[in-house]
Amino acid sequence: MPGSQAPVSILPPGTAAPDFALHVTPDQTLSLRELRGKPVILAFYPADWSPVCGDQMALYNEILPEFHKFDATILGISVDGVWCHSAFARERKLHFPLLADFEPKGGVARQYGAYRQAEGICERALFVIDKNGTIAWSYCSPVAVNPGADGILEALESLPK
Amino acid sequence: MTTLKIPVGPNDHSEGPDNAPVTLVEYGDYQCPYCGEAYPIVKAIQKAFGKKLRFVFRNFPLGEMHPHAESAAETAEFAAANGKFWQMHDALYENQEQLGGPLYLELAGSLGLPAAALRKALEDGTYREKVRADFMGGVKSGVNGTPSFFINGHRHDASFDFETLSAAIEAAVGK
Prior knowledge:
The structure holds two protein chains of two kinds. By secondary structure, chain A is an alpha/beta fold. Chain A is about 25% helix and about 25% strand. Chain A has a single domain, classed as Glutaredoxin. In chain A, strand 8 and strand 9 (about 135-140) form a beta hairpin. Chain B has helices spanning about 35-50, 70-80, 85-95, 100-110, 115-125, 130-140, 160-175, and strands at about 15, 20-30, 55-60, 150, 155. In chain B, a hairpin with a 2-residue loop joins strand 4 (about 150) and strand 5 (about 155). The two termini of chain B are about 15 Å apart.
């Protein structure tokens, strides 16, 4: 992790998306690099189980076919551990990966400027990364507000074909 | 400010005059408990505002979370095709705990709708596209959960309790 100083705001469009490798299940990791060549949506969210997040992830779950039309992969990321994620995903029937930014805690969120130091949780921050690994769009929602999916879909539509 | 991207049109289900000063659009899910809570509130709002309000309901079923939401929405669309949308919409919310095939057929029967045709429409997914079109229009308008309300095209982010919602509508009437 580069330094201990947390960025004050989320990474803006045009920035190279920092690579990472995080656990997606207890024995599997997923790295951003593996997804190069296709758009990636990163959805940082504060916590599994909290009602707003539940709705947000539930919404993305319903919109998966639309994301797939753009060949895009969506990844949810929070500081919850893999076992918590797997219970949450099972209970909510989520069909996309939840990554555990667990050790070092919030390490990836910090790199994206999406960590709330005081509370020790991720911001509710969205990134659309193009097929070359550059951030094409980013948005940080007030932590209590579900940002919906309109911004993500507009960003995907705006990506060069 | 998040705004409604799909204008209210002839394909919508609406109650109240087309030229009402305020149009309230709800994106709702028949199985969502919060939409169930909103149902009598919207009724009370409609009563309070009378001809000053047009109410529009659009489908936003969160089917992965609510396994009966999609079939309930398709049942309401079937009723709409037979001129009975609002009766079915109301009956579905009033029987939210019993959603499922048997209830739909029973409600169709009590509304004088052909049960066999409903069964076939559900099997064939006749109204699936209409429901999905509502849903995607909602997503593009920034619907982030259910119920989501738009007052004259602007998303109402505050609470949907009677006092808050009616104050927001009152403010829109005055504009």
